[in-house]
Amino acid sequence: MKLRDLGEFPFLRRLQQRVPRDAHVQLGIGDDCAALALLGTTLLTTDTLVENVHFRREWTTFTLLGEKAFAVNASDISAMGGEPTFALLGLSVPQDTEVEELDAFFDGFLRAARASHTSLIGGNMSAAPCWMIAVTLLGHAPHGIITRSGAQVGDDVYVTGTLGDAALGLHVLQKGQSDVQAEEAKARFLCPTSRLEISRSLVAQHLATAMIDVSDGLLQDLGHICETSKVGAEIKGEQLPLSPSYRALCGERDWNLALTGGEDYELLFTAPVEQRTAIADIVRTALAPITRIGCITSHAQGICVRAADGSMYTPTQAGYDHFRTE
Amino acid sequence: MKLRDLGEFPFLRRLQQRVPRDAHVQLGIGDDCAALALLGTTLLTTDTLVENVHFRREWTTFTLLGEKAFAVNASDISAMGGEPTFALLGLSVPQDTEVEELDAFFDGFLRAARASHTSLIGGNMSAAPCWMIAVTLLGHAPHGIITRSGAQVGDDVYVTGTLGDAALGLHVLQKGQSDVQAEEAKARFLCPTSRLEISRSLVAQHLATAMIDVSDGLLQDLGHICETSKVGAEIKGEQLPLSPSYRALCGERDWNLALTGGEDYELLFTAPVEQRTAIADIVRTALAPITRIGCITSHAQGICVRAADGSMYTPTQAGYDHFRTE
Q1: ipTM score of complex
Q2: Do A259 and A293 sit in the same domain of this protein?
Q3: B150 assigned to some structural domain
Q4: Which of A3, A44, A92 faces B88 most closely, judged by CB atoms?
């Protein structure tokens, strides 16, 4: 059935019944605003996925798209050391959208939200020439927040997971490649892994001095930390965490995508040298990958990538900018 | 200059410098999230304007568009009896957008925000095939909130301002009409009037039992109050507040647009009969128009519009639904 046959309001009433009630919500979906009583520090972030810019329908499923729309916002909350709590969803879709497509989208979105104990409290629907998904996510920060501005000269630089896989996934989707390695990379592009557990440990133990999520490429996002913290950084090329798919498809020595590929949604953080044991403990207990990839240097030194033989590595492309012409 | 020549991050740095600092914001634009310490009841709403769905570039200016993007969200906060406080802005625009267009948009948005003592605390920018403006607005409600669910049988029904002008404005824009009456109606479509002052008086004196803003047409929005409050309503046709432009272009007796036209962003509320004097006082002191247009009846009676001669009036169209085929 098409949405235009069902109608916006009947669809919203149906949706309202699917959203579990949350005792912390004074007023949820169904009035002009949602109403909440919030305590402590509230985090807020908003991020938009646009069809044919961030995704193509033929590459993904609507359920995965719903999960990703939640995940990219949850990643920003994690990057501050917070926990997601409440979501608003502005969904703009073509008039001939199938209700089944919307249902699948909400399946994914609500599943991802539930897994992070987050309630959908409001939003709006509108017609548009293509799918555009604007999510606003709230979070709380019971242990304080980790900003981009606290990195100190001498700190270690760490990243979770592996780098460059999402950009590689996008590349193989564009090429239509479909071997095993390609499938693994695609999966990383289509739905990022939550790093909430690692973020929670880092903030609870006050281990990280600065943190950001890698959404526009490692060097660009590291650049944001360095600019805000007024420091530089040296990255050791051989220590960049590369997945088996990445090694198979790009080779061990091509670090371009690992340094500049967007949408990995891994956590990039800095921590004092004396926290190495505590961070190794997180890796052991959370069974989550964290790799030390370099150190913070003085602002004057800028950001550089150095190979084990001492040579400097310069990527052939910059990080992602939606508007910059290459 | 095109945005693609300046780049996303340089533009955002420039913008950051334009946004005034607010002592209530722990962390504003420039990190993964904004951070706030919020007390009491927090209101949240999100609304999206999509090019060629909600507006056409050739009809408006980017400054007016920025004002409207703020105003339609502020209207939802007013409709709960709240005051807007903080805004997030998800802005998706074509890659060849001129920086001057964005500057004009932010001129309007930030001016409207400042007039309502609201701080822009974050957002994101993305490429898109057309302009899409997703605003999330927070508000506070120091005197409690007015929901849609409190209307009682016997209550009066009131509306602020005049009805149908925005829909009429859209109509004359589509037709390319440009006499004096047409210009007045266009202005109502291009930038709605804030009703914050009336809302503030209503909630401070606990006068209204239910409230909503008229965004999808009077009958449809009254329908939301009636459905949620489990009541009916009788509207007196001759009491509908019609502007001189409306009377000139539609006539005194054609109530179609007044009953079903969207985007007026006036406040529709119900109040007990004994509050008539207090409400008349608001009209006098705030110099703001409020008109009593009918009364709340039992749920079984549904919603009807009656003319002075006792006859029922049935509009020839329904209220606005983005997806419903007429």
Answers
A1: 0.93
A2: yes
A3: no
A4: A44
Cβ distance B51 to B87 under 8 Å?
A: no
In which domain, by residue range, is B214 found?
156-313
Query: Which pair of tokens denotes residue B275?
Result: 């509050």
Which of B32, B38, B83, B269 is the best mutation test for A, with the most CBs of A within 10 A?
A: B32
A161 alpha-carbon distance from chain centroid? 12
Nearest residue in A to B2, CA atom: A323
* Rounded alpha-carbon distances, angstroms, from residue A7 to A14, A134, B233: 11, 21, 23
Chain-chain contact of A89 with B46 (C-beta, under 8 angstroms): yes
Contact state of B121 with A212 under an 8 Å Cβ cutoff: no
Q: What is the domain count for chain B?
A: 2
Contact (CB<8Å) A48/B134: yes
On chain A, the residues whose CB falls within 8 A of the CB of B227 are none
Burial (Cβ within 10 Å: 0-12, 13-18, ≥19) of residue B40: exposed
What pLDDT digit, counting tens, does each position of A31-59 carry?
999 999 998 899 999 999 999 999 999 99
Q: Are B319 and A8 a contacting pair, CB within 8 Å?
A: no
The answer to whether the CB atoms of B35 and A53 lie below 8 A apart is: no
Taking CB atoms and an 8 Å limit, are A41 and B36 in contact across chains?
Answer: yes
SS3 A159: strand
- CA–CA distances in Å: residue B198 to residues A317, B80, B241, B290: 55, 12, 16, 9
Instruction: Report pLDDT digits (tens) over B248-280.
Output: 999 999 999 999 999 999 999 999 999 999 999
Residue numbers in A near B38 (CB within 8 A): 38, 42
User: Are both B100 and B224 inside the same structural domain?
Assistant: no
Residue A313 lies in a domain: no
Residue at A224 is within a domain: yes
